[in-house]
Predict the 3D structure of the following.
Amino acid sequence: MVITMSYIDSIYDKVVLKNPGEKEFHQAVKEVLDSLVPAIDKHPEFKKFKILERIIEPERQFMFRVPWVDDNGEIHVNRGFRVQFNNAIGPYKGGLRFHPSVYLGIIKFLGFEQVFKNSLTGLAMGGGKGGSDFDPKGKSDNEVMRFCQSFMQELFRHIGPDTDVPAGDIGVGGREIGFLFGQYRKIRNDFTGVLTGKGLDWGGSLIRPEATGYGCTYFVQEMLKARGTDFKDKMVAVSGSGNVAQYTVEKINQLGGKCVTLSDSSGSIYDPNGISGERFDFFMDLKQNRRGRIKEYAEKFNVDYFPGKRPWEVKCDIAMPSATQNEIDKNDAQKLVDNGCIAVGEGANMPSTLEAIDIFLEAGVSFGPAKAANAGGVATSGLEMSQNSLRLAWTRDEVDQRLHGIMVNIFKASRDAADKYGAPGNLVVGANVAGFLKVARAMMAQGVI
Ligand code: NDP
């Protein structure tokens, strides 16, 4: 164990040295490496074949210029990225993020996480991620379209239905996927399942928009079941108000829970009445159709709005962070624990800092890490790929049942791996080890490439 720990530390040190300034990537690697100690102890062959040294290095990464023209005729230049991290178990798969904070370190952290997450789904998908520092907020539909067309003008040569299949993430929803798909189809003269999250009339899957939020809620339901309880009458704090948050709230309502918070990058709202019925409909219309700010919800229903604040100070039984990385720090985690929070399901990617995770685990909070809890989105993207290959469309119920089954299996696989590798109840260790083993074995079998 001591030898393995120093071996793992030396790999982490090299990652920091070779990837300067990429702090989110360092953080994601640290979380995974630390929890793999028992797996490397048990499987010395992985050390011999330098699996860790290979798995932390992306197979390929692209950075490219994305010039576009705004509605006033002015030219702008953004930077585009695609990181193809690992395709040992299937084509690269992972979303595109359009947000001004995007740089290589963010895309690499997301791509690295994606490798283990996709493995956990049980489907044949490798890991990748991409995006741009373009900010879709405040842009017209035509500006977003011209940007997407320019982005795809370069990306098309690196992707394909059996090579790399991008999807949405922050700032990339149905509208953006439509523009990207249209441009790909035009350049390639091919109608294939090269992107997921497509519209229902042109190759999309039912339940894909709902999948990450529904899946995360199913995962939390399993964690609650293991504690002998359920969502009924539980108060839930949700952050974000985008795709993941929206369908998390919908599923919590269906399961009898009461969602009391939402946020966006300007602030958060607290509605002790619960965001359901007419209030939920208003919220969905506000964010999906009017692209408005969450503050308008507080104005409409006369509830508290906290400018610039995250929603972790309120009393809640369950927290489901669904906005962005590092949105729960150690102080937030301590507040949640002090207020009686018993479960955390990470809808967003890496929303909790490493210190926050430690606080949750030490306090006995059931903690569902992102790569397990939010894997429902990419799993349903995998189901969209299957339907595209079969040229069939499954019913809503069929896809939802498959999603539910996948989330239950991910929970079990993570719980069992945690038990087997000496960390019972620690789903961070469980998810990392279970996801890692499958990819590591595939890399061993395929030789040194
Ligand atoms: P959306 O763009 O639909 O929504 C993102 C939400 O988070 C918005 O409310 C946004 O507010 C808020 N947000 C974004 N950045 C920040 C920030 N820096 N500080 C505070 N709030 C912020 O994205 P998604 O819902 O798709 O994604 C949310 C999270 O879930 C991300 O971490 C993503 O990686 C993860 N995820 C998404 C999946 C999917 O299928 N979509 C799959 C798996 C994980 P504002 O509008 O003000 O920017």
In short: The chain has 18 helices and twelve strands.
